[in-house]
Amino acid sequence: MLPDQGCAISPPAVCTLIILVRPGHSWPLVFAANRDERLDRTWDPPAAWWPERPGVIAGRDHGAGGTWMGVNRYGVVAAVLNRQGSLGPAPGKRTRGKLPLIALGAKSAREAAQTLAAQDAGQWRSFNLVVGDATGAVFLRGLGQGRPQSQPLLPGLHMVTAHDPDDWESPRVARHLPRFAAAELPEPPRWGSWPALLADREGAPAEQLNVVPRGGFGTVCASLLAIPAIGPISWLFAAGPPHTAPFVSVRVEE
C-alpha cells in the first residue's frame, strides 16, 4: 500500500502540505510541501514555463503539462493533492495538474477560490487543493461530481494529505502535525527545523513524510514557500528528496 493511498501513479500533485496562517504577521502565509511521485516521471523545477500565463512560476510536469504547486505575481499560491482512492488518470478526465494553473490566473486567493468553486468537479478525479495569499488560505475539496466544496483555513497550523485538513485518520498527520506544532515557527530567511522535518524518513511507510523509495515511487522534491505582507515572496526548492537535495532559492517575478 502506498502512503495515504493518494500520491503516486498520479497527475502532478503535492502529497503532503503544511500551511501556517497568521494574519498580521510579516509572513502571514507559509507553505511547506513534499511531492511524492513515480521516480521515472520527469519534471522541471519551478520557473516561468507558460508564456501564455505571465507572472506564473511553478514546477512543470512533463507527462501531463500541469503543475503540483506554484505562485503568481500577485502573491497567490496554489497546490493540488490527490484524494484517497484516486490514483492515476481516468478516461475522459482532465489532469488535476491544471487546477493550480486555473487558480494562478486570479489576482487574489478569494478570486481563485471563487473561480475553482464554480468549476464542474466532474471534469477531474477527486482532489484536494489549497489556495492562499497574504490575507489567508482556502481549502477546496473536489469529489468528482458537482461543484468543489470550499472552506477557509482558520489562523494557525494545518496539514493536508490525501485526507481533509488536519484529519487524524491520516497516519502522516497523526505523526507529523504535532511535530511541526512543537517546532519554532519559521521567520524567513530562517526556517528553523522545518527543512529537517520535511526530510524525516522515520516511521511506518504510511507515516513517512519523506517517502523512502519502494516500487518505483518516493518523495522527489520539496518546497518551503512564504508569502510576505510586504516585499518579495520567499521560495526555497529542493530538486530531490529533502534529506539529500539542497534547498535553493526560486526567482519569483514581482
Percent of residues in beta strands? 25-35%
* Main β sheet profile: 7 strands, antiparallel
Helical residues, percent: 10-25%
The end-to-end distance, rounded to whole angstroms, is 42 Å
The helix/strand order is: EEEEEEHHEEEEHHEEE
Instruction: Determine Rg (CA atoms, Å).
Output: 16 Å
- CATH architecture label name: 4-Layer Sandwich
CATH topology: Penicillin V Acylase, Chain A
Please report the number of helical segments. 4
Q: Using DSSP, what is the number of strands? A: 13
CATH class label: Alpha Beta
- List low-pLDDT spans: 1-6
So, the CATH homologous superfamily? Answer: Penicillin V Acylase, Chain A
Any idea what the shape is?
Answer: globular
How many domains, as an integer? 1
Task: Summarize, please.
The relative contact order is 0.21. Strand 7 and strand 8 form a beta hairpin. A seven-stranded antiparallel sheet has the order 3-4-5-6-7-8-9.
Which secondary structure elements does this structure contain, and how are they paired or packed?
Blueprint: E1 16-21, E2 29-38, E3 43-47, E4 57-61, E5 69-71, E6 77-82, H1 99-103, H2 109-117, E7 127-133, E8 136-142, E9 149-153, E10 156-160, H3 171-182, H4 194-198, E11 217-227, E12 234-238, E13 247-249
Antiparallel strand pairs: 1-2, 1-10, 2-11, 3-4, 4-5, 5-6, 6-7, 7-8, 8-9, 11-12, 12-13
Verbal overview:
This protein is mainly beta and 254 residues long. It has a single domain, classed as Penicillin V Acylase, Chain A (4-Layer Sandwich). 12% of the residues lie in helices and 31% in strands. The chain contains 4 helices and 13 strands. The chain has a 7-stranded antiparallel beta sheet. β12 and β13 (247-249) form a beta hairpin. The N and C termini lie far apart (42 Å). 48% of the residues are buried.
